Amino acid sequence: VLPYFVSDEEAKALLAAVDANAWDTTIKRRVQHYGHAFDYARLTIAEGGDVPELPSFCAGVVRRIAESGLMPEQVNQLTINEYEPGVGIALHVDTHSAFEDGIAAVTLGSGLVMEFRRPQLIGAACSSAGSPPAEASQKNVWLPPNSLLVMSGEARYAWQHGIAWRKTDCLEEGEVLPRSRRVSLTFRRARGRPCDCRWPSMCDGQNPETLVLPSRLGPNSATESSAPEGN
């Protein structure tokens, strides 16, 4: 996590630019997609048609992400998610077959705690989707306003991440912080080839059973687990 990745002034301008565009209300939280659109019904990027460029309002952010050297490849897809207080997202791993290594997320507005969970499998040789789970490793990470979160390698491919449905967060020091509106800008690179990562137990390309398609979509769905892609 890189704090102060964007300035307060830049964050204000980014939020204004985001809110000037139309929101997609297909799922419970409001989203916007640029570059490759994400298909929530199939949990993959939409195919066919021309792929538009990323919007000009995020050009500076994209340039600085590339200059940081933290992302393995240049990004070409942007998903914007809005989280009002009390709204969360189920623990998930971004679909391997849809996106390359490297996920970069900028937090605008409210900070919050993101949960990370590393499912463990019994036995070193266990790698199939049907293997029984053992105890998982878990970490909570505070994402401050204007920060950049980068996940790559094992963090991208094997650790689940999610946001609890609550209106406050408790930091390690015991401080309780109320949430307000958070808008995240998540940058990724669409995958143009099969995934052959080193984490087959979490990979829908090597273990198709790991891809659980949503049974329900829409703003009135009872849970958000049916549309997990986001940060």
UniProtKB/TrEMBL annotation:
Q: Which domain of life is it from?
A: Eukaryota
Among InterPro entries, the record links this protein to: AlkB-like, AlkB-like_sf, ALKBH4, Oxoglu/Fe-dep_dioxygenase_dom
Q: Per its UniProt record, what Pfam families does this chain match?
A: 2OG-FeII_Oxy_2
Q: Which GO terms describe its molecular function?
A: demethylase activity; oxidoreductase activity
- A GO biological process this protein is involved in? demethylation
Which residues belong to any copy of the Fe2OG dioxygenase domain? 74-191
Protein name per Swiss-Prot or TrEMBL:
Fe2OG dioxygenase domain-containing protein
Source organism per entry reads Polarella glacialis
